[in-house]
């Protein structure tokens, strides 16, 4: 992370996996077009994960991509807070923290684990959940990660958004983000952003990104699966639910992190 040179207008999206990175990223990308410093020339550049820093002959590193991005840049991470502590507390990096109810997060993460060319996990949800119990998920402990980012909420350069708030009132979330990022947005712009960032539109855009590529539609349907609240009820057993609730009691309750679902 030391190689990453923070710019004053940078915005980092920090969240555990499958908490809504892509949805929030697209909202911020569209908001960026209204930023006073925006050039409008970077719309086609994907929002990189700062930790994906392993270049290939055909693919530059995340840091190389970031260096080429025009300001104001949007960058994502699934790293724990301790990796970003210096950037946030000493260099003033602006962060939008995105958190989601953990049972839904794990449900979505399981389906992500099963996508071919990503993890291609061969087991069922209950086998995946054993990885959770054993703390063997690639992302690490999502409960600790959520707690630690949540505890940075009182810093002036940190803004917390909950996935459930985005589902309930996307427009209000956009307005609060605009205030935090000092982006003047008229009501018409807010309405346009909300409409363009609906999951159905984003799924369709991904499926059509490469013409005549049928596999991309399949991936899009898995990547943008449901985006609903409460799908965990179709997956978790009572014992698994109790395990998550105990983790919530240990990690979330002492710091006042709660989700209204």
Automatic annotation (TrEMBL):
Sulfotransferase domain span: 8-247
UniProt-listed Pfam families: Sulfotransfer_1
Database matches in Gene3D superfamilies: P-loop containing nucleotide triphosphate hydrolases (3.40.50.300)
A GO molecular-function annotation: sulfotransferase activity
Keyword Magnesium: no
UniProt record similarity statement: Belongs to the sulfotransferase 1 family.
Protein name: Sulfotransferase domain-containing protein
